[in-house]
Amino acid sequence: MTLTDGRRPGSRGVAADHVSLRRNNLSVVLRHVRDLGPRSRARIAEETGLNKATVSSLVAELVERGLLREGLADSSRALGRPGQLVELDGTGVCGVGAEINVDYLAVAALDLAGDVVLEKRVPVDVAHLEPGATLDRLAGLVREAVAAVEARNGQLAGVTLAVPGLVQVETGELKLAPNLGWGELSVAQEMRMRLGEPTYPLHVDNEANLAALAAYAELRGIEGESMHDLVLLTGAVGVGGGVVAGGHLMRGGHGYSGEVGHMPVAPPGRTCGCGRTGCWETVVGLTALLHKATDRDDPVRDPALDVEQRLAGITRRAEAGDARTLSALKDVGTWLGIGGAILVNILNPDVLVLGGYFAVLGPWLKEPLEKAIQERVIAPDGGGCRVVRSELGFAAAVRGGAQISLDQVFVDPTRIGAAT
Amino acid sequence: MTLTDGRRPGSRGVAADHVSLRRNNLSVVLRHVRDLGPRSRARIAEETGLNKATVSSLVAELVERGLLREGLADSSRALGRPGQLVELDGTGVCGVGAEINVDYLAVAALDLAGDVVLEKRVPVDVAHLEPGATLDRLAGLVREAVAAVEARNGQLAGVTLAVPGLVQVETGELKLAPNLGWGELSVAQEMRMRLGEPTYPLHVDNEANLAALAAYAELRGIEGESMHDLVLLTGAVGVGGGVVAGGHLMRGGHGYSGEVGHMPVAPPGRTCGCGRTGCWETVVGLTALLHKATDRDDPVRDPALDVEQRLAGITRRAEAGDARTLSALKDVGTWLGIGGAILVNILNPDVLVLGGYFAVLGPWLKEPLEKAIQERVIAPDGGGCRVVRSELGFAAAVRGGAQISLDQVFVDPTRIGAAT
DNA sequence: GATTTTGTCTGTTGAACCAACAAACTAAGT
DNA sequence: ACTTAGTTTGTTGGTTCAACAGACAAAATC
């Protein structure tokens, strides 16, 4: 991770002075403890290459800022004086993520340790509501989350909003959200107004991007620290894609990257929401699955049901071994692999993560998907890419939003807490 | 650009001390002068935010290392004492790039200012030669380039080899190069042996990746410094893709990214070299163009002709307004746009660069290509992506190889020159 | 000569480093 | 049980290095 850099990794480096040097090393120690767990000062010094005295000084400052705390004595080493464990102090600082999606609003607050302080999701038929009314309700949820953080005496690192559309990250303006039926709208400005011009940072980002970030954090715990490249596919009505490349979220030149749903891979068939035919999401979106697996008058297609109830219905049938359901799932899995192979050939990720409804139905999708990828990827052994289900479900984007707010604290710990 | 980082941007930051602080600021000043041109110390201080005294000290060290030199007096400002211009000293340090391709070997040496010291290309029918024999000949070219650098009394920053295949960058091992007919081979080790275990760094990288890097440097001069995201498409027998995202070369988890030639976008037609049908390169590769534009017994298809002679033939006919040629070019342009739109939707680059034969025939390909992209990209206005021809032609990869060696000097100027 | 700008010089500050050391513990010997 | 040697931890005092701040001589214009 950069030290003195701004947000753009490609930019010319920035001149550094003693302050940035200190900031860097504070960040190094803090992230070291986050990633590798509680450990003594001596061990931190050994592992980071910093001097023992320096580590002591850095830890003291981080403790004063409420980011680290001293824990128990370390009895793991046999000989010598036992060290005092230093661990992440989750209680002090929290980040909040909130999400607008087609049929729900959601919010999450995470503390510095990544533990969930509050998580809430309410069904809302956003497409049939005025944007203003939706934002009113979202602001209510954000206020609840902020209140929960304040009730814990926590400082708020920031709030990040996830939107399923094209977002200009720098300004927080939404350009287009076809699934919501929204056009241009300055979401950041509207929300700042509704939240009473708050002092904490408020950002807006693409839903799939934030979900990818959450999956990245989730999977580094499982797949290991050497995992740096990931593609997340979230299945919903459409298909969203988020890319982490070299440990950084890939946003593209104008923040419009990851629009994978409209790759023209399918044979000309159903017309897509974008007006064309042959789009990937016409064969792997939830609608496509329902059309393949059920008849028009099937009870799972009842408009009164929400996504999760429909998925529960499909899952039940698949578990019972219903032939038509299984065949439809295999079909979707194969198409998922055909598009997935394109992504793997272009991006060569370490893992391809299934999110949203793909994660729920993962057990049935995974096998045909992996087969299709193995057949189509040019690199030996599928480029070493594994297919993995995310456990975060529909909470991935809000988690990612909370995390990206917290990440700023890890990059620059001096943002938080009293000055020395 | 990072400061204290290793090669992997996602890795945990590295502890910094006074030495890395100095290294960073040396790098900042050096890159500042490279990117913004000659200027006085006072101006560098003003623009970078460093102190005047600090800049003096940094410049002195960079001059001592042979990376900067003092130029003329700056008479641009009206009032006051004129400054002494400080400029890049190209003469001291050079980087070398070399390339193995299907029908030629090439080498280039660039100095620190980016000026060409030597550039050479020799036709070689690599596919019908033993790999060992090819490497022997390549080693000869590299020795020529090194000799040219030494003749100028220049220090060699490094040598980078470009190969049209899947390369493991860390080890320098080639995994697969279908167009050469090569399998697994440790190119780095073989070349080090042939060059007599040289002391300078020797790396191996994918040809399209290096070409993308060269195009990035080329276009930042034209498109401006705010350009950070680029996709390069090199047309040859196949199609290669290179991606620069956020100013960094995107390599993927195992270095296998950018394999765009086999996206299944075309209708089932000719069988591709990979054994499947419908691959992108079956409709946009040079062979596809020749099949569309000419009959079997057409003189441009004469096996005695090389690529450039064939292209010259096609160009001549297009300029003369030959209907069949123009129609074939329009066709290829449209298919180029269909695949290109996928890349733009996924990666949202600032520019899509045409390299290799696409650049040569760019005038005829560009219009249908842009039309196809505009129609298929979801983001407004094609995601702000422009289509641009590269002027580097078939020298892009060697230039990129030389540049990536030189880049190391800009990141850490203390690698070069006498210690203070 | 007054003014403005450049670049150097002197001294200060801040942060990391180094070496020494007291504290806290284990293990072995008496 | 008590002592002693050996280990490891974390702090302290002093050193080093690099950036900074301000003063100032030099070199130009007006």
From TrEMBL, chains A, B:
Recorded superkingdom: Bacteria
InterPro entries xrefs: ATPase_NBD (IPR043129), HTH_MarR-typ (IPR000835), ROK (IPR000600), WH-like_DNA-bd_sf (IPR036388), WH_DNA-bd_sf (IPR036390)
SUPFAM superfamilies referenced in this protein's UniProt entry, alphabetically: Actin-like ATPase domain, Winged helix' DNA-binding domain
Segments forming domain HTH marR-type: 29-70
Keywords (A to Z) from UniProt: Kinase, Transferase
Pfam families with a match to the protein in the record: MarR_2, ROK
Gene Ontology MF terms in the entry: kinase activity
UniProt record similarity statement: Belongs to the ROK (NagC/XylR) family.
The protein's name in its UniProt record: NBD/HSP70 family sugar kinase
UniProt source species: Kribbella pratensis
